[in-house]
């Protein structure tokens, strides 16, 4: 059930009768928070003691295996990689390992993997590449649920004569309905782009179903996984997407973007790099030189996920450590989100964007209030709550659900390393400041 839809925020009058906060007891957690948090130096940082981190959708804390690999690269191999001397060869080997390990975690071959400076940069390059691949009169589908880094890159193709069709969210719930997608699809569609999970609405979209419908009309798919992957890396073979991208700094790693693209499709796209690199797959969609150290460090993300799998209960499903880590992280987050969503559901002076069922959403929880989101976040900081307010580059989505992007929302985002005590700290802060 969705929260009651509020009218325009500027004119609303609120009434909130305070009730006793929900019982802090929650479902038994599959992961021991203390053992998980031991992998993150941030939790031992004196300046962060007492601060509960609820802005993980903007970037998570960095895991120790990532820092270890980054430090090793900068200390021992900060040279040009792939050369003839030992340090250079080691540097190239560390980078190659990251390609191999990331592919392993995503269940694809290493030739799927590209690293770029960010997901925004990766999609910008992709948009330019598709401008040379599509023809005037071709059509694509984009959504108004996207972060602008994804939607904006594809919408620019309209300047090249490409027809852009918008898959619109429900204005009350922020949900994308598959039936609405079906009505947009025909033989002219060459690309369908959608988020795996909205960074505002939070609902986990049925990617495999979206991909199947796109493929049925001969279209390729580009899935934005930036807001999903901090909750577990997906099995790309099972999803079937032709393009899937995300940011490693939101997955416990360095500030970099991963672009997974079907090799056959990547080979068809026009070269975006130097002409003499046209035959080098890793260079064709990376026009600028990549950050070698951060690529090497990205292997630490995969190391960390294997460590999570080792701490997970043996009876959790999953054919490999990465699927088991995914299952454990999601189960942890669902248990943590339940009391927070129960609390928010009881309030009639806010609007929750997206579903209030923790099993249907990621724990990226946006609420609209009469006060601007950034103002509410500032008040929460007095209680040791680190959260954010604004439009979070989801301008079109906020407009679609009737919220002024300049007013924005309060966004509360957490991951599996959050503790039950921090959830209660957040609820107490909300009770005091909303």
Description of the molecule:
It contains 15 helices and 13 strands. With 434 residues, the protein is of the alpha/beta class. The chain has 2 domains: 167 residues, Aspartate Aminotransferase, domain 1 (Alpha-Beta Complex); 238 residues, Aspartate Aminotransferase, domain 2. The strands form 3 sheets. A 7-stranded mixed beta sheet has the order 2-8-7-6-5-3-4, sandwiched between helices. β6, α8 and β7 form a beta-alpha-beta unit. α3 packs across α11, α4 runs parallel beside α5 and α12 packs parallel to α15. It holds the Pfam family Aminotran_5.
Secondary structure elements and their pairing?
Elements: H1 33-37, E1 52-53, H2 64-76, H3 86-106, E2 113-116, H4 119-133, E3 139-143, H5 148-155, E4 163-167, H6 178-182, E5 189-195, H7 207-216, E6 220-224, H8 236-239, E7 243-247, E8 257-261, H9 263-268, H10 281-284, H11 292-311, H12 321-345, E9 351-352, E10 364-368, H13 373-381, E11 385-386, E12 388-390, H14 395-400, E13 409-413, H15 420-433
Parallel strand pairs: 1-11, 3-4, 3-5, 5-6, 6-7
Antiparallel strand pairs: 2-8, 7-8, 9-10, 10-13, 12-13
Helix pairs in contact: 2-11, 3-11, 4-5, 11-12, 12-15
